[in-house]
Amino acid sequence: MDGLNDGGLTRERGRRASVQIRRPGENVTQHRPTILQIIPELDTGGAELATVEIADAVTKAGGRALVLSEGGRLAERLAAAGGELIPFPAATKNPARILWNARRIRELAVAEGVDLIHARSRAPAWSALIAARKAHLPFVTTYHGAYGEKGRIKNWYNGVMARADVVIANSDYTAGLIRARYATPNERLVVIQRGVDGARFDPAAIAPERVAALRRSWGVEPAQRVILHAARITGWKGQSTVIAAAAILAGRAAGSEAVPDWVVVFAGDHQGRAEYKSRLVEQARAAGIADRIRFAGHVDDMPAAFRAAHVAVVASTEPEAFGRAATEAQVMACPVIATRLGAPQETVLATPAVAAGQRTGWLVPPGDGAALADALAETMALPAPDREVLGARARAHVLDRFSLAQMKSQTLAVYDRLLGTRLAGDA
Questions:
Q1: What pLDDT does 259 receive?
Q2: pLDDT digits (tens, 9 = 90+) for 219-231
Q3: DSSP letter string over 333-381?
Q4: Is residue 148 very low, low, confident or very high in pLDDT (cuts 50, 70, 90)?
Q5: Cα angle for residues 381, 305, 237 (degrees, 5° grid)
Q6: Strand order through the sheet with 336-339
Q7: Residue 39: band (very low, low, confident or very high) from pLDDT cuts 50, 70, 90
Q8: Is the pLDDT reported for residue 358 higher than 90?
Q9: Do the beta carbons of residue 302 and residue 265 sit within 8 Å?
Q10: Rounded to whole angstroms, how far apart are CA atoms 391 and 72?
Q11: What CA–CA distances, in Å, run from 115 to 66, 144, 364?
Q12: How is residue 196 annotated by DSSP?
């Protein structure tokens, strides 16, 4: 749907938040800082959630927050945050369409009095870069992914994310990639790590009924412990490694009353990768643990999901640019096991980097089912008091270093630096 065609404004009014779908140039009141973010979709994922969170920060600071996107699950949350969704074919990778989108973004920027454009994905970033340069507007990007680089053409294509006036890296790991690939100078590169909403992700705020409802929907018995893997169903997220570790764990537990009963819950969409999911099902069946595996699909209530889990696993076999599941699990006081790869090494305190009494989780080699099984067994054996102490330490660690308030303030400070405004001071 092309949201830049002429037409009337569709907007529901009332106490309940609704998706604000606007047409450019209509109902523009007196000028205030207007930030335009562009992202392909508003479905699930860290980039999409960050878009909504920064829209919320902008509006609370007195600015206007416009989002160009094809929409998705998070559109309602954007509206509740005061952001305005303008439907736009931002997901296209067609070169001709990218150029056409650049023209439309420039027209939109003029019509809406846009002060700054912030792109969060590569294809729309090309359109946004062209539009920003032609409209003489500041341009910001957030480098959300590790982005595979196979040859000079892919390097050039990905490089649009490093051509902004300010490039935001979502971790130190990502910043290192940007420097190595594009020689981006430090004065244009800022590290702003993903933030977690400590109020939403608060163990004390999760009603037992929410946890019980999720466990029932997953088909989990009251006495069973949940090993939670929260990620979309795709090969590099490591579901196959989790199943391999589960098979090892089940073998060790056979005939032993000391090992508690458990199930593995994969919380995430397969997004069209039905064949890969089928292979996982067959892998579990061949290992004799099909009855221990649950494919839950998309889960909206992730705070309750982490509360329902005995341990969370981030099993990625390729580097995570940030890996928010690792921080969300920790802030929910849920023990987490992540791979020693990419940004989770920044967010999870683990041996040998820290003493066992200071750790907030475990780090294991990627693709190593046996090592993951060992870590799972260790979490299962943790006495309840030790698990509680570890969880409290993990929550404090995340709130101190990876809070949503910090992410918002630091992003608004980038806007202020380019615009001469005081959004961060007013947030």
A1: 65
A2: 999 999 999 999 9
A3: T--EEEESSBTHHHHS--TTTS-GGG-SSEEE-TT-HHHHHHHHHHHHH
A4: confident
A5: 80
A6: 293-295, 262-267, 225-230, 311-314, 336-339, 362-364
A7: very high
A8: yes
A9: no
A10: 33
A11: 11, 23, 45
A12: B
Q: What is the pLDDT of residue 44?
A: 79
Q: Per DSSP, what are the bridge partners of residue 226?
A: 263
Answer whether 166's CB lies under 8 Å from 416's CB.
no
pLDDT at 16 over 50: no
pLDDT score at 257: 57
Q: Report the distance separating Cα 410 and Cα 7, nearest Å.
A: 37
Contact status, residue 68 vs residue 98, Cβ threshold 8 Å: no
Quote the CA–CA distance of 55 and 173 in Å, as a whole number. 25
CA atoms lying within 13 Å on the CB side of residue 166: 21
pLDDT at 21 over 60: no
- Give the pLDDT band of residue 46 (cuts 50, 70, 90): confident
- Return the DSSP state at 161: G
Contact 19, 79 (CB under 8 A): yes
More confident residue, 43 or 1: 43
Q: What residues have CB less than 8 Å from 393, skipping those under 6 apart?
A: 358, 359, 360
Spatial CB neighbours of 294, under 8 Å, sequence gap ≥ 6? 218, 219, 220, 263, 264, 265, 266
Angstrom distance (rounded) from CA 217 to CA 276: 23
DSSP state, 260? P
Listed in sequence order, the residues at least 6 apart from 69 whose beta carbon sits closer than 8 Å to its beta carbon are 38, 39, 40, 41, 42, 51, 85, 86, 87, 88, 90
Q: How far apart are CA 332 and CA 214, in angstroms?
A: 16
What pLDDT shows up at residue 246?
Answer: 98
What Å distances lie between residue 426 and 31, 79, 409, 413, CA to CA?
A: 17, 21, 10, 11
Q: Do 196 and 218 form a contact (C-beta atoms < 8 A)?
A: no
CA angle 88/94/97 to nearest 5° reads 50
User: From the centroid of its chain, how far is CA 2?
Assistant: 26
pLDDT for res 59 = 97
